[in-house]
What does this fold into?
Amino acid sequence: MGKRRAAAETRRDAEFAAFTAGAAGRLLHTATLLTGDREQAERLLTATLARTYADWLRIRSDDPYDQARTELVRRFACRPFWRRPRGGVLERLTPQERMVVTMRYFEGVAEEQAAAQLGLPPDRVRALCARAAATLRSRPPGPPPRGAGGARPGGGPPGGTRPRTEMHGAAR
It folds into this structure.
């Protein structure tokens, strides 16, 4: 390998390492929002960064973060095993809704840009965003909120009596 090529690769490695140091945390958070699972998010991010590194010489003149985020979202959309969130705030949303909400609200991507990156018309992005917001605003399924069903506002049982509890270490 020639000295020029070795110097170019060393420079590429340094640039990519600096990019990764600054962007990996935010990209991991985005991946976690999409997948709903830290382990899957790390796998998604690793695959994304590997592709970004391979394309580094081509994309470094553009916005590398934008390119990496686009790759992350594209990889999420194409891999069905990343579509089953196992927790997180966005688990009640469909994969498309999670992508739109993550890009629009967390990443701050404009509606038109998000539509272009996702390959959807802007009207569809707007509709997905509105539906996701309505889902997130609605009360999640599960037990009724505390205080419902005849319980007192203070959290105690109806009738005003509280069960007597003994504190650990207290002498009687």
About this structure: The helical segments are 3-35, 38-54, 56-59, 64-78, 95-106, 111-118, 122-137.
